[in-house]
Amino acid sequence: MSRRLLGPFNRVEGDLEITLEVEDGVIRQARVNSPLFRGFEHILQGKPPQDALVYTPRICGICSVSQSVAAATALAQAQGIAPTENGRLATNLILATENLADHLTHFYLFFMPDFARDAYRNQPGFDATARRFKAQQGSAAPEMLAARAGFMHITGLLAGKWPHSLALQPGGTTRPVEAAEKSRLGTLLRAFRHFLETRLFAAPLEAIDALDSSQALDAFAEQHPDSDFAHFLRLSDQHRLQLLGRAGDLFMSYGAYPDESGGHLLGRGIWGNGRQQTLDSEAIREDLSHSWLNAHSEPLHPWQGSTLPGDDDDQGYSWCKAPRLDGQIAEVGALARQLNDGHPLILDLVRHQGGNVRARVVARLLELARVVPAMENWVRALRPGDSFCTPTRPIEEGRGAGLVEAARGSLGHWMVIRHQRILNYQIIAPTTWNFSPRDRDEQPGPLEQALQGTVVGNDDDPVVIQHIIRSFDPCMVCTVH
Amino acid sequence: MSYRVLWLQSGGCGGCSLSLLNAESPDLLTTLAINDIELLWHPSLSEAGTAEFLQLLEDIEQGRQKLDALCLEGSVMMGPNGSGRFHRLAGTRRPMFDVIRSLAGQARHCLAIGQCAAFGGITLAGSNPGEATGLGYHIAEPGGLLGVDWRSRSGLPVINIAGCPTHPGWVLDVLCQLAAGDFHESHIDELNRPRAVTDHLVHHGCPRNEFYEYKASAEKPSDLGCMMEHMGCLGTQARADCNIRPWNGGGSCLRGGYACINCTAPGFEEPGHPFTETPKIAGIPVGLPTDMPKAWFVALASLSKAATPQRLKLNATADHIRIPPGRQKEEES
């Protein structure tokens, strides 16, 4: 048994360190460490509740709007108000812009460049992959950056800027839209659709959404060989990505993009063993047994939770907590969202091979194809002249939860208010779930599970690990916050 | 020879890097390439694996690799109890502050990217649980990690590109000027921020200027009026060009309908009042426009309030234009 300490990793958001125990070239155990602690939950204590809208987006520069929406939702619940219809639509549009831009960034800048690394130079097709995806040099990145920056004009119009906007409020959004601006939003979306339909998919978005089985996906790749999506699918076959990175196969989603009737565009639930169940967020507990934090006698729900930095003790190996749902490990992200929404392609992929590197990437790209048309509908539904925001109310005492879906998965804020001040604020971010350390039953977190059993041989810096890690699109600055 | 940049992140959110990806005409990678700027390493963009990166750091520290600019994004984490255990460089047990200090000593230029690296920023709000500090400043006091009189090898102090986050143009302009040998001490202000940014006020170019002139004020989020009187807006005091050089194709905080919270100024993270409420004494905002004597402000404000056209009065508290310019008489009749 040999021990390897890996890190720092680039092309993940924030800092990550992994300790592997390798025997006969196979990972027997993995321990995932989030090495940065900033203490946002302390910073928020004693602040005026509405100031959470300034502090929490600054937890993370890549999930900034998700943090804003979670805080605004928690405040709205505490105040007993709801956003106006325009406010709901604009909030969905701003959040979807961030989430989809993140998926694009992940695919082109974070995930694909690994296949253009020298370790693969003897693989068939390497030159074409390097020409398209090599970090900082490939032809794809400048095209994608231009498309992404243009798409982000939606945030310039609806939220002032990205990241770190104060436009997302409990009662809606601060930036009303006039008829000409509504038309401009439509144009920005069509420009983004054009990029996706010519470069990423080389097919209409609706054709991607219509893929309903593994066979249909294979057929698509053959029919559209010039698309970046097909390029990925070929690499996936070559490197057998469908056999890499399987975790515990229990998938959770809080539900993404509220609709007008209290439901979601992408449904909420937990999915495991081939079926979906209702999600009870009150069954969440955070276990601190392997964190560098002072633990309570029992794991607590975030309504009661605390975050007290502790010593460099023997058992702890990360600043990250270990959230569990009814004691179980849950994986979150686009794959979990599409499973809980019952998309036939994703159901088929997971029924056959479980959660894996390939399925996670396919789910993210599928989400691009599915959410852009929804955004087009939201823009059409905006009603210039109608209210975008209802005024907030002062809160003397109360509490509120904001459960949203960020690009990387389920994000929760739990806020308790006493004497018009924040008494307690607890945050569980998507990567807190996915990259959690062990709990007191020694159950490893999802990435730790996903790495176990992976064949790495004698390579000190195996690329295969990079594929598995990046398939979760980790956001480490959110993880510990 | 290309201008070589190493970009590190510590106690921050990564938002300045993500904002940098918003660069346009041309895009970020093209801008760097055509200005002969080479990223030796950037956490979001580079290919290099773990071992190559650690080797690169060692080469720079040993003087084997030339380093033109060290960019730090995020606060320096000193805690707990000065140990740096809140951020150790992954793959090592070394406190990140030690890595930063060592590399800064090798760099020709040293840049604090964003409010956190410049002054400590949002990470040192509240009780400063992480014992965060800036590279060359701790809030408004010179010092920080590197000390009061610290200068980089070029003789320049740490260049503080403040902001939360930074505008992509702020960062790229400074890097391009440095690479071209055209950035000098006269280009930074008294807090070592680029004067190209801080010689302006956020107020300059604010589309709500007419509301400001007549003190026609917004009262709630999404109102169109001036946000200085009630909504906490510090645009008349904040030093940045956000409304001259807008964000994401035409936005800014004020254009987005919410207050400027003065994120280029040290200490913005603790305003001492709710961010989006204006503190007042006897009905007069405590913070007055930069360089304006209080008596004059009060006199002019009461005069302009008396002269506010009906159009501005009505539009200020509405979320869309009720009366367009020049139609006042029709509406009144």
Describe the structure.
Chain A is α+β, with helices and mostly antiparallel strands and 481 residues long. Chain A has a single domain, classed as Cytochrome-c3 Hydrogenase, chain B, CATH 1.10.645. In chain A, 41% of the residues lie in helices and 16% in strands. Chain A has 18 helices and 15 strands. Chain A has helices at 40-44, 52-55, 64-79, 85-111, 126-133, 140-151, 153-159, 179-200, 205-209, 214-223, 228-239, 334-340, 344-353, 357-381, 430-434, 446-451, 463-471, 476-480; strands at 2-6, 17-23, 26-33, 168-169, 172-173, 251-253, 256-258, 264-266, 269-272, 275-277, 284-287, 322-325, 398-406, 409-418, 421-428. The longest helix of chain A has 27 residues, at 85-111. The model of chain A has no long low-confidence stretch (mean pLDDT 96). By secondary structure, chain B is α/β, with parallel strands linked by helices. Chain B has two domains: 3-196, NADH:ubiquinone oxidoreductase-like, 20kDa subunit (Rossmann fold), CATH 3.40.50.700; 200-323, Cytochrome-c3 hydrogenase, C-terminal domain (Cytochrome-c3 Hydrogenase, Chain A, domain 2), CATH 4.10.480. Chain B has helices spanning 15-20, 28-34, 50-61, 96-106, 114-119, 168-179, 195-198, 209-213, 294-306, 310-316, 328-332; strands spanning 3-9, 37-41, 69-73, 76-77, 109-113, 132-133, 137-138, 141-142, 159-161, 280-281, 284-285. A five-stranded parallel sheet of chain B has the order 2-1-3-5-9, with helices on both faces. In chain B, strands 4-6 form a two-stranded antiparallel sheet. Chain B has a two-stranded antiparallel sheet with strand order 7-8. The longest helix of chain B has 13 residues, at 294-306. Chain B is elongated. Chain B starts with a strand and ends with a helix. The interface between A and B is large, with 90 and 79 residues.
